[in-house]
Specification:
mainly beta, 1 helix, 9 strands, 12% helix, extended
């Protein structure tokens, strides 16, 4: 009988360990009580769709009411690219290339000269819509803009309102650039997946 107690105890310990392991597998990792899976329908998300927007972005550096202002000048010892320069923007977004065309939103954010070798901007901006069913919704763009390339591509990293969970990309093409003032009009084609 004395020999069976250690065998019985080892079987009991093995059974206890196995049941503890099984409990962990069933209940999951309790270290992450702050996260859970959700059904997308609970958030009102329906079928994902792909939309294309064509907009004109007006970067106005001159005049009485510029839409882009320098908030950080480049260091005095910088290269010819103005590396380090930062501009805050509230640029009009219109349907056509003329400023007189219909205003549908504003590009709000900043761009910074992030390259020492060429004119390469870091763009961080929200396309904040003010028209139609998209009024109050935003598309967020973050990426490199090699200004003198014919077509520049930057990722859409998110959005708000009707663009929650947005993903996609934009293509930027310079429509008009005044080299004397720096004022520019850029055509943006936005391809975005959203719900």
């Amino acid at each position: 009988m004395a020999r069976s107690v250690p065998i019985l105890a080892s079987k009991f310990i093995t059974l206890l360990l196995l049941s503890s392991f099984a409990t962990i597998l069933v209940t999951g990792d309790q270290d992450h009580e702050f996260v859970r899976s959700l059904d997308r329908k609970l958030l009102g998300l329906k079928k994902e769709k792909l939309s294309h927007f064509k907009l004109y972005w007006h970067d106005i550096l001159t005049g009485q009411n510029p839409s882009a202002v320098q908030v950080v000048p480049p260091p005095s010892n910088t290269s010819r690219t103005a590396f380090g320069l930062v501009r805050m923007i509230d640029n009009p977004l219109t349907l056509g290339p003329e400023m007189s065309s219909k205003l549908v939103g504003r590009a709000q954010g900043f761009y910074a000269q992030a390259s020492q070798q060429d004119i390469g901007l870091l763009m961080a901006m929200n396309f904040a819509f003010i028209e139609g069913k998209y009024n109050g919704s935003t598309i967020t763009v973050l990426g490199k803009n090699a200004v003198f390339s014919t077509v520049r591509e930057m990722p859409v990293i998110g959005g708000s309102g009707l663009f929650r969970f947005a993903r996609g990309y934009v293509q930027a093409r310079t429509h008009k650039l005044d080299m004397a003032t720096g004022d520019a009009t850029v055509e943006y084609n936005v391809y975005v997946f959203h719900y």
